[in-house]
Amino acid sequence: MSTFLYLIRRVLQALAVILIVTVATFCLLHALPGGPARGILGPQATVQQIAQFNHEQSLDRPLPVQYVAYLGRLLHGDLGTSYTLNEPVSQLIQERLPKTLVLTLLSAVVGLLLAIPLGMWQAVRRNKPVDYVITTLSFVAYSTPVYFLGLMLVLVFSHVLPWFPAQAPQGDTLAQVFADPAGLVLPVVAGAASVVAVFSRYMRGATLENLSEDYVRTARAGGSRRGAILRRHVFRNSLTPVVAMLGYYVPVLFGGALVVEQLFNYPGMGLLFWTAAQSSDYPVLLGCVLVISVATVVGTLAADVVQRFIDPRVKEGHA
Amino acid sequence: MTATDTTAAATAGTEPVLRLEDLGVTFSSETGDVPAVRGVSLHVRPGETLALVGESGSGKSTVALASIGLLPDNARASGRALLGSTDLVTDVVTASERDLAALRGRAVSMVFQEPATALDPLTRIGAQIAEVVRNHRQIPAKEAGVLAVDLLRRVGIPDPERRARAFPFELSGGQRQRVVIAMAIANDPELLIADEPTTALDVTVQAEILDLLRRLAVESGTGVLLVTHNMGVVADFADRVAVMLQGRIVETGPVEDVLLRPEHEYTRRLLAAVPRLAVAGSPAVPGASDAAARPGAGSGEEAGQASGQASGQESGEGSGAVAAEVPRPRYGTRARSANPARDSGTDGERVVDLRDVSVVYGRRTGAVRALDGVSLHVRPGETVGLVGESGSGKSTAARVALGLIRPTAGTVTLFGSDLRRTRARARRSLRAGIGVVLQDPVASLDARMTVQECVAEPLRVHRRGMSAKDRQEHVAELLERVRLPRAYAQRAPRELSGGQRQRVSLARALALAPRLLVADEPTSALDVSVQEAVLEVISELQEELGFACLFVSHDLAVVQHFAERVVVMRAGRIEEQGGTMDTLLHPGTDYTRRLLAAVPVPDPVRQRQRRTARQAAAAGTGPAAGTAAGTGATA
Question: In this prediction, what percent of chain B has a pLDDT beyond 90?
Fold first, then answer.
């Protein structure tokens, strides 16, 4: 199949997935008890006031009708207006998303740059002390809640050792964020920890599997040195399954950002989502979920495309 | 080293390129040390081929790996493995990994069994060959790339400039093996180790690869250590043979001596278990050799049969004396010759009947015809052999017969019922009348079940009313039937050998007293002696229980001895079918003739003649001549 047709098919699939996600989120949000009116109008609000708010926001109409109306606005790029912040959701997301992207991408890149060599090193030194130490640290890093890990980082590297600020860079623009790189260190480390833990495990497994492959023996029989075999053959072959996993890891990264942003008071999308969830701000919540699902779908698509690039067999349908 | 060693070939006198002296290899495992090779001494001279033969577990591959220093980490070698002929001799046993890397690919190189996995799937083949070149020569990448193309040309890859940029998955198995060979000869090694180099390939491809290896060895005077279990390959390729049993060499000598006049009792048994392909027009050297290999072989059966007409049709094969050796029934006592009454009857009862069956995967331009207008049937009590090369559709046809694949067109009648017209429930009960034995003895039994549970499973499904006690008794009887002790019921499959596992599969297949047994390559993964035992059990039970058998195999010799009728398949179509003797002794199509000609027979003298005839035929008829011709066939 040509790459073009493949992409078209994948994009159509992606749209279907996103549609299903919006339906699910829409239903779930409206199934929750309470509702936005009480949160926004306060405990003093009368039943009439609440009814009027619900009517203004069309919240008293049947769910399917509401959903179709929402979808119709969505097609015009209208994500609605936040109940609490009185700003269009699209504008809120436009402001916040880049900052979250910076945080998650940095976490992912830093995490992978550590995880891939660590995993390969572990595989080569399998069942040696290095392997055990890294394995143990991985499990610790993976099983520690991000929230706790972040607090520990602040405690050690901000309070005990005053190396980095405890607060992430403030401000609305990316320029302001990059003006304070030291402030990004602890949030990025907190976000990267689980990436290192998870992907060093993947890389270790994939490398071990490849080291026992016949082609490694062939290369050795041809006089290639161990290091060269690792560099030229094992590395690329081990990377393919890891890349495939990366796409599915996007929502986990966003989930991590939710906590990290809250913890370091970083005004990104995670923080936006967090506050919106507390006041049942439906349009904001829906907008955020939409963005995350798009990011996930794009992430898996990108991973698949990269895989087609690395592994020629994928393209031909041989693998 | 034995006395016979010194008589080897014309190369005697030159220093050996490999000398193993009292080589031992021990594997350390959790349960203690396991000696795999003990006291092995042998040598390989330049230009000669030493075949190391033996059954699985005999240690032959371990010797090969020890000779190139590629033993796994949990293995320890002792003794000496001296590599190199004149100026520089290295002891592989004691050499450092660094020194070994400098030797591998230059002084010694290796060709492996499985071409499908031997190459890095993500690197272009030209680059993989160039890598071996550059491991030992300080030349620019571009120059190495040019050399790689030359090497591809030398190993007979068509259009090498373009193919150098191909990835391994774009090549066929045979071509991949050629690439592995190109890597192996890239730096003109003194010693080439070939570990079952053709075992994973079809016979016609096997013949081409052996021709190629022989030509390359002759051209450059490379010594070859050939590891194989296939006596036909040995007869075709080797100058000398070393027979291994349980980690030791039990017999060494020139190929004619070992294969035709074996001295050791084990060698004799091994050779006797090899199913031999009988062919019309084989020049009259046989008889003696066979009798020697298989003492006690019947005398009257060797009746010569005039088959002048048959050989008249054959252009290339044996122009000399024509004497067809009639193969005797090897498995069981039943006469395997085609029963004319059965053969002529067009109607009558048929256990399974495929009529004009096609199986198509995919649609339109991407459609693949796995089967194309296939009609075949099996009558009660009869064995039909389904033969063909990989991808010919023989397994697909068997699966259609089982009702596992719905044909795109055509009808399948099982025990008189049209499978398309039966409901799912009825189809299930029809299937209870079929037993299945598959190729892989490891994968076809659930590792988490005991033998008892494995064999009892069909009873649980189709005989719900049966009490646990009856079931247990029935399983015990089945195990006895396939000649396994009753006590094995409580064992796990992993505690059994490959042959025992196949018998468990057979017991399971027979649990419901089937009317049809479908056996898909049931002995391909087994050693010859084990294969013989398993086929004998099937044969005897067939006589006793009277089931019909659809026997899928790529091994023409086995089919010849086992089946009454044979169906030859090629690319999803039936090439020809008929009585086994008729079809395989006097094939009606070029394809079958080529298939038969490519099978190496375990007799070096006859094999040499067959090879010459095959190569002459190929040179005369096809474009394949380029790879086959000029291979030093007169060696």
Answer: 51
CB-based contact, A214 to chain B, within 8 Å:
yes
Q: Provide the residue range defining the domain that includes A151.
A: 102-281+293-315
DSSP label at residue B497: -
Burial B25-54 (b: 16+ CB within 10 A, else e): bbbeeeeeeebbbbebbbbbbbbbbbbbbb
CA-based nearest residue in chain B for residue A313? B169
According to the CATH classification, is domain B352-360+369-601 in 1.10.10.10? no
Q: Report how far residue B261's alpha carbon sits from residue B263's, in angstroms, rounded to the nearest whole number.
A: 6
CA A184 to chain centre: 17
B62 falls in which pLDDT band (50, 70, 90)? Answer: very high
Q: Hey, where are the domains in chain B?
A: 18-239+248-273, 352-360+369-601
Phi first, then psi, for residue B184 (nearest 5°) are -70, -35
Are residues A65 and A151 located together in one domain of the fold?
no
> Whole-angstrom Cα distance, residue B54 to residue B60?
7
Report the DSSP pairing between strands B383-387 and B516-520: unpaired
- Say whether residue A128 is in contact with chain B using an 8 A CB cutoff: no
Whether the domain at B18-239+248-273 and the domain at B352-360+369-601 fall into the same CATH topology: yes
Does pLDDT of B354 surpass 90?
A: yes
Q: What's chain B's length in residues?
A: 635
- Can you point out the beta strands (E) in B335-479? 352-361, 368-378, 383-387, 409-414, 417-418, 434-437
Q: What is the mean pLDDT of chain B?
A: 83
| Tens digit of each residue's pLDDT (9 = 90 or more) over B134-165 | 999 999 999 999 999 999 998 988 899 999 99
Distance between CA atoms of residues B531 and B503, nearest Å: 11
Per-residue confidence (pLDDT) for residue B13, from 0 to 100:
54
pLDDT band for B302, please (50, 70, 90 cuts). Answer: very low
CATH superfamily for domain B18-239+248-273: P-loop containing nucleotide triphosphate hydrolases (3.40.50.300)
- Any domain includes A230: yes
Range with the poorest average pLDDT among B181-195, B299-313, B526-540, B558-572 = B299-313
**CA–CA separation, B433 vs B343, rounded Å?**
24
pLDDT tens figures, B305-350: 333 333 333 333 333 333 444 444 556 544 444 444 444 444 568 9
Closest chain B residue to A221 measured between Cα atoms? B104
- Interface probe for A, chosen from B122, B125, B138, B191 (most Cβ of A below 10 Å), is B122
| pLDDT class of B200 with cuts at 50, 70, 90 | confident
In a mutagenesis test of the B interface, which of A6, A218, A236, A237 is the best target, namely the one with the most B β-carbons within 10 Å? A218
Q: Is the CB of A224 inside 8 Å of chain B's CB atoms?
A: yes
pLDDT band at B524; cut points 50, 70, 90: confident
Examine the domain organization and report whether A138 and A250 are in the same domain: yes
